[in-house]
Design a protein that fits this description.
This protein is mainly α and about 80 residues long. It has 3 helices and 2 strands; from the N terminus they run ββααα.
Length: about 80
């Protein structure tokens, strides 16, 4: 895991998985293959539904997202 530190005070604000080059390439290859197969694409109404849900989640978690972003950037709250 890669620790994410606040550059202002050095406190840990989170962690994220760390992948090696081969795993990153494997995942990129899988994504490229999925994108190339148009038969696997979601239809437009389903994509709209997903984006609308994403918008709702962003709005509902706006304060949390802002605080996390500020913390990761070392900015005061």
């Amino acid at each position: 895991m890669l620790e994410v530190l606040n550059p202002y005070d050095g406190k840990k604000v989170g962690e994220t998985p760390l992948q090696d080059r081969a795993e990153v390439q494997r995942r990129l290859d899988l994504a490229a293959a999925a994108f190339a197969d148009r038969g696997r694409w979601l239809n437009v109404p389903r994509r709209i539904e997903i984006l609308e849900k994403f918008q709702q989640l962003l709005e509902a978690n706006q304060e949390k997202i802002i605080r996390q972003s500020l913390s990761e950037g070392g900015k005061p709250l």
